[in-house]
Amino acid sequence: MRIGVTWYTEQEWRLVRDAASDAERLEASYAEWVAMAEEATKDMLAAGIVAERVFINASELLAWCLAQRKQNDAAARSEYVSQFLMKNRQGAS
Q1: Which of 8, 44, 48, 81 has the lowest CB atom count within 10 Å?
Q2: Model-level pTM?
Q3: How many CB atoms lie within 10 A of CB 74?
Q4: Cα separation of 6 and 54, whole Å?
Q5: CA-wise closest residue to 48 among 7, 82, 3
């Protein structure tokens, strides 16, 4: 099984976190986020799930949230990645 996971550069992570409606649920620093994300992807791989990193552009994500009338929260970020992957996979066909 293959899934997409949000992935950030440090700058993009800060922008997304600063605009997040659930910022209190996110890690306090980029380094903490990287450690959590890497551990989570290792756990997924151990469970037979391949996590495909989808690098997030904060401006594009926030514009998508606005267009979809969604808050920048975990659910919206996850949906954004899923739609991004579907769109790119269809374009590759």
Answers
A1: 48
A2: 0.87
A3: 14
A4: 5
A5: 3
